[in-house]
Design brief:
mainly alpha, about 60 residues
């Protein structure tokens, strides 16, 4: 079980690292766009992303 958690965390770290490595300007643009959203819109986006991740995780098991 712990090996799957470590694997998942490592995969997320690699994916995030690739964004910083390959497209740092695009990341800055995305962060500026996110900053222009209201806090409630960001919360809704976070909730939807969590739900989508939960569904994908459930489908993969």
């Amino acid at each position: 079980m712990i090996d799957k958690i470590v694997f998942g965390l490592a995969a997320v770290m690699i994916a995030e690292g690739l964004v910083y490595l390959l497209a740092p300007h695009a990341l800055e643009t995305l962060l500026k766009a996110l900053k222009s959203l209201s806090i409630s819109a960001r919360r809704q986006m976070g909730a939807l992303l969590c739900l989508a991740g939960y569904i994908l995780l459930g489908l993969s098991l």
